[in-house]
Write a structure and sequence with these properties.
Distance between the termini: 39 Å
Number of domains: 2
CATH superfamily of the largest domain: P-loop containing nucleotide triphosphate hydrolases
Radius of gyration: 21 Å
Bound molecules: adenosine-5'-diphosphate, magnesium ion
Number of helices: 11
Shape: globular
CATH architecture of the largest domain: 3-Layer(aba) Sandwich
Structural class: alpha/beta
Strand content: 15-25%
Order of helices and strands: EEEHEEHEHHHHEHEHEEHHHEE
Strand order of the largest sheet: 6-7-8-3-9-10-12-11
Largest sheet: 8 strands, mixed
């Protein structure tokens, strides 16, 4: 699956958002949404980004689309540095990238027909006749399991699963190389999850699209992703091949996430772990490992600095002091 050069490469990405002041002259505060994340996504693979709500998944994904500016760090896409592009170059690069949204109910404008919605990327690009746009939109609808007859209907005529299919048709009409799927099924009825995921997998194979797949559901990630990054409060906890991480989850946070999902699977090897403690404030987080306060295996030295990301086996990295004790302890 992996080719030599990644399609997408993130190097030490930091993103923060200023927080509104509670009173004048208050010191400037920032939400550290993404802190020092590096990763590689290879052509044709499905890369999973996992973590609890608010840990920075969408912010990180938006940086890869050039929608979200980074404070520092570099992003390379298809051999070019995205973070060094001017507006024109960025628009050009964005043609190869698309996203589908978590909530198909609010992401489709109810006053636009399905044709308007699906053909919008062609209209923005320009140079297509109405007939050409209708033809391409009809073809995309067939690809996602809808029909040409749906072109003149409106979003309200469709179920949640069908709305997400419309969103997928819209995202794929320009035949992108790279697609961000930001929790694409979490707003949908459980009964349609498998259908939508299967559709995404079929389309990936047909068009050789690379997916960044955001989810908080590890069962789904295990099924469809080849590699994975587990995020907690803006930082990488564990990163690498899905098979290796699932066979040998080493970070206490990954293990806690897994034990919550795979009751039977994991319980034979690990005890069920319940996360305790308060979620720390993302505003000016305290020094030390971000998982301190909730980690069942916390040691006194864990507050002394941030654990580095260490490769514990080939293509399997973890950021935990269990695998790299702080220097003062050595
Ligand atoms: N535009 C924004 N302005 C201020 N804070 C933001 C903005 N977008 C996200 N955040 C904050 O950044 C953190 C990460 O958010 P997000 O990337 O949406 O997480 P996730 O997608 O994992 O749920 C959260 O604390 C969130 O409140
Ligand atoms: Mg999100």
């Amino acid at each position: 699956m992996q080719k030599n050069e990644p399609l997408l490469k993130l190097e030490n990405i930091h993103v923060s958002f200023p927080v509104k002041k509670d009173y004048p002259f208050q010191k400037k505060r920032f939400v550290r949404a993404v802190s020092d994340v590096s990763l590689e996504v290879f052509e044709g693979e499905t890369f999973g980004l996992v973590g609890e709500s608010g840990c920075g998944k969408s912010t990180l994904a938006n940086t890869t689309l050039g929608i979200q500016k980074v404070d520092s760090g570099k992003i390379f896409f298809d051999g070019q540095e995205l973070t060094a592009m001017n507006k024109k170059q960025l628009n050009e690069a964005r043609r190869k990238m698309q996203m589908i949204f978590q909530d198909p109910f609010s992401s489709l404008n109810p006053r636009f027909s399905v044709f308007d919605i699906v053909s919008e990327p062609l209209r923005i690009l320009g140079g297509y006749t109405r007939e050409q746009m209708r033809e391409q939109a009809a073809e995309m609808l067939r690809e996602v399991g809808l029909s040409e007859g749906d072109l003149d209907r409106f979003p309200s005529d469709f179920s949640g699963g069908q709305k997400q299919r419309i969103g997928i048709a819209r995202a794929l009409i320009l035949k992108p190389k790279y697609l961000v799927c930001d929790e694409p099924v979490s707003a949908l009825d459980v009964s349609v999850h498998a259908q939508i995921l299967n559709l995404l997998m079929d389309l990936q194979e047909k068009y050789n699209i690379t997916y960044l797949f955001i989810s908080h559901n590890l069962a789904v990630v295990k099924r469809i992703c080849s590699r994975l990054l587990v995020m907690y409060f803006g930082k990488t906890m564990e990163y690498g091949d899905v098979d290796k991480i699932f066979a040998n989850p080493v970070h206490p946070y990954t293990r806690a996430l897994m034990s919550a999902v795979f009751d039977t699977d994991i319980d034979s090897k690990h005890e069920r772990i319940r996360l305790q403690g308060e979620v720390p404030s993302p505003i000016n987080p305290p020094p030390g490992c971000r998982f301190c306060g909730r980690c069942p295996e916390e040691e006194p030295f864990c507050k002394q600095g941030e654990p580095p990301l260490v490769e514990i086996e080939e293509n399997h990295f973890v950021s935990c002091f269990k695998y790299a004790k702080p220097k003062t302890e050595e």
